[in-house]
Design brief:
Blueprint (H helix, E strand, L loop, with lengths): L1 H31 L3 H9 L5 H7 L21 E6 L2 E6 L8 E5 L10 H14 L2 E6 L8 H18 L5 E6 L1 H15 L8 E5 L21 H12 L22 E6 L5 H13 L4 E6 L12 H16 L1
Parallel strand pairs: 3-4, 3-5, 5-6, 6-7, 7-8
Antiparallel strand pairs: 1-2, 2-4
Length: about 325
């Protein structure tokens, strides 16, 4: 009888804890407007400081070789090769009819792939059957855009020699989103290259001197002051308003269909809306996906809002 009472008490305690969690979750959603998971993720981020920037500036660590984290599994074999000194990962498409996604990762041109990048790419390769090409492009502080951009253009050229441009979709997040748009603008100027079929830009960093200070209090991840310094470092000898680093100031005419994803609580939000407006005015087939109260690169977050956005991106990949 005593054992039964203990188990009954334990069972009731577990039920009470579950009820508390459910009620707390509902309360967070009602009050905050986001899922409990999104609320937690947003507050787990570490916002970089100027002190950390000063310590990290000039870091000459060799970031040219990375590995896919343990626990991340792609549905097909991942091959590696080099374009110049740039490491490239490639997963073949399921068949010849599936798109090839050139994914340019974010990280403020300083950080390498995160686990969220790998997990998202593996998910899209599984759910859509697409091929994935993921370059480990040169990063600060050994390199600047002058080193990275020619290699990315060379990789794109090689992809077009192997695949029809109609199959190639260029996607990127944050710094990689800005890089993706700058790459497409450069392809437009190059007679020997055709535009990709689609651009998917996730919270793209389109103005390295920009960012909306009025939104800083809501952004738990990005620090405008730090980013402006890092952006200038990435530009190097190039003007920070040159479209190669700040594609917001580039020519939007004749760009391919584009999908822009952003949250209203990220400092890039205003610049992304400006990009949308410029594209729209230039006649580009562009769609703006806005999620209220969500932060930077929310489609990569492990939360219901992120999962919903990744499903939407999978549809874009499938529909081309």
């Amino acid at each position: 009888m005593k054992t039964k009472r203990i188990f009954r008490k334990l069972f009731l305690t577990v039920l009470a804890l579950i009820a508390i969690i459910i009620v707390a979750g509902l309360g967070i959603r009602l009050i905050d407007g986001r899922s409990p998971q999104a609320f937690i993720v947003a507050h787990l981020f570490h916002q970089s400081t100027m002190e950390e920037y000063e310590k990290g500036k000039g870091d000459m660590t060799d970031k040219s070789t990375v590995a896919i984290p343990e626990g991340v599994e792609f549905p097909r074999e991942v091959k590696q090769y080099r374009v110049g000194d740039m490491q490239v990962f490639e997963v073949a498409a399921e068949d010849g009819s599936k798109p090839i996604v050139l994914y340019i990762h974010g990280g403020a041109y300083y950080h390498n792939f995160s686990s969220r990048h790998w997990k998202a790419m593996a998910e899209w390769a599984e759910t859509t059957g697409c091929g994935i090409v993921a370059p480990n492009y040169p990063l600060l502080y050994r390199y600047t855009v002058k080193d990275a951009f020619p290699l990315m253009l060379q990789l794109y050229r090689q992809l077009q020699e192997r695949y029809s441009a109609r199959r190639i979709l260029v996607m990127g997040d944050s710094a990689g989103g800005g890089f993706s748009l700058a790459l497409a603008q450069e392809v437009l100027k190059t007679d020997s290259l055709e535009l990709p079929s689609q651009l998917v830009l996730i919270s793209p960093w389109v103005d390295v001197a920009g960012g909306d200070d009025a939104l800083q209090e809501y952004d738990t991840f990005l620090n405008n002051e730090v980013l402006r310094h890092v952006g200038a470092d990435w530009a190097g000898e190039i003007d920070v308003y040159d479209p190669i680093v700040s594609p917001l100031y580039g020519d939007m005419q004749d760009l391919p269909p584009t999908d822009l994803f952003t949250g209203t609580w990220e400092v890039f939000y205003t610049d992304i809306v400006k990009t949308f407006d410029k594209m729209k005015a230039a006649g580009v087939d562009v769609r703006l996906h806005v999620k209220e109260k969500m932060g930077h690169v929310y489609p990569l977050w492990p939360c219901p809002e992120g999962k919903e956005a990744r499903k939407e991106i999978a549809k874009i990949i499938n529909n081309g």
